Amino acid sequence: MSGVAHLYAHLPFCASRCGYCAFVVHVGALGDRDAYLDALLAELDREAGVLGPLDTVYLGGGTPTLMRPRRLRALMERVGPHLAPGAEVSIEANPETVDAAALRELRAMGVTRLSLGVQSFRPHLLRALDRAATPDQARAAVDCARAAGFDDLSIDLIFGVPGQTPADLEADLADALALGPDHLSWYELEIKPGSALARAGTAPVDEDEGADAYERIVGGLEEHGYRWYETANFARPGHECRHSLAYWGAADYLGIGVGAVSTVAGRRRRNNPALAPYIGALAAGDAPPRTDEGLDADLVRRERWMLGLRLARGMDLGWAGPPDHPQALDALETAGLLRRDGATLTLTRRGRFVQNAILHELMEYA
Ligand SMILES: C[S@@+](CC[C@H](N)C(=O)[O-])C[C@H]1O[C@@H](n2cnc3c(N)ncnc32)[C@H](O)[C@@H]1O
Ligand code: SF4
User: Fold this and answer.
1) Which of 17, 156, 201, 285 has a CA positioned 20 to 30 A from the CA of residue 241?
2) Mean pLDDT over residues 14-29, rounded?
3) Does ligand 2 lie within 6 Å of residue 247's CB atom?
């Protein structure tokens, strides 16, 4: 085995919880950051035996930048010896948590890619999402990141926010393009169980309105040279996120930190989300509390279909395995929703707008 080439580190601290967010996040726990860093380093040391040269590292959250450069540097010093030449090292950042000095430090410690959570440039939509950063803070963070030498810069946006009009979407599109990012992730708002929006009974936007918005985003970004390479992801050529591509390609990866998931050699481990037991176990020299399951061939096949169909580059049928309903392939092809070229299956442009429905025509999911 050549070793795992992808590392995810979860940095779960947030100043507050945004209304839509159901990620593993800890609010009001900044006092635990040093102990958490120690635990994270201990977990990395325990698991380092599975690592090969790392092609990608992803520091995700939570709000990783709340760890501050000092702790992030300590983490990067421990990760550094595992990095392959030319490795991609991404970090998620909330605009209000970074300034010019912090971004220069991130660059200097070996972070190559910055993903800024902007979500929208419209103040009323930012309020609806409980976001802390203003549009001007987002613009300033982009300027500082460029000045710090980040030439792989992504912004996250959300559409389908209650109250978002077509004019709001046009304005977000124009503002996003004006910043000239190398990459954009533009997600449809999901009302996740357990989020404040779900507790308030917020209804998702009408399906047709959502579809119109999605089509407009895809068209607007493509017109400006961004390639729609995955359902919600767009990049200038050469700026696709290699870490995400590895994940969608079902590559093995090691995840460390609370709530982190790993897939290594046919097994899936999930660390528990609670902070204190994680820190306590690693401080005592034990493994963190986690579940560990073997992945059977059927589960792997279903996951590969779910991940592979998202990609513009298409999916190799030999890699994914047969669909549950092979007879549906012909009908979908005749309907102009997918193309078969030898062993490669690719959704057409029209198919990509309805990929969930296509997936459910082809596969049985419990
Ligand atoms: C792990 S999150 C957090 C990154 C960072 N803390 C932030 O808020 O900018 C990564 C991205 O997922 C997206 N996201 C999170 N929850 C979502 C939801 N319920 N619906 C749609 N997008 C969501 C947001 O665009 C967010 O920037
Ligand atoms: S969206 Fe980002 S900042 Fe907001 S609670 Fe979730 S992880 Fe934290």
Assistant:
1) 17
2) 96
3) no
- Beta strand pairing status for 290-294 and 267-271? antiparallel
Residue nearest to atom 7 of ligand 2 (CA): 62
Q: Is the pLDDT of residue 109 over 60?
A: yes
The number of folded domains in the chain is 2
Q: What is the pLDDT of residue 365?
A: 81
For residue 90, the ligand closest to its alpha carbon is 1
Query: Which residue minimizes the CA distance to atom 6 of ligand 2?
Result: 21
Domain of 16, CATH number, reads: 3.20.20.70
Is ligand 2 within 6 A of the CB of residue 117?
yes
Q: Quick check: helix, strand or coil at residue 68?
A: helix
- Check the CA dihedral 123-126-128-131 and report its sign: negative
Are 243 and 303 in a shared domain?
A: no
Q: Which domain holds residue 330?
A: 297-362
Q: Do 180 and 32 have their domain in common?
A: yes
Beta-strand (E) ranges in 273-357?
290-294, 315-316, 338-341, 344-347
Assess whether pLDDT exceeds 60 at residue 1: no
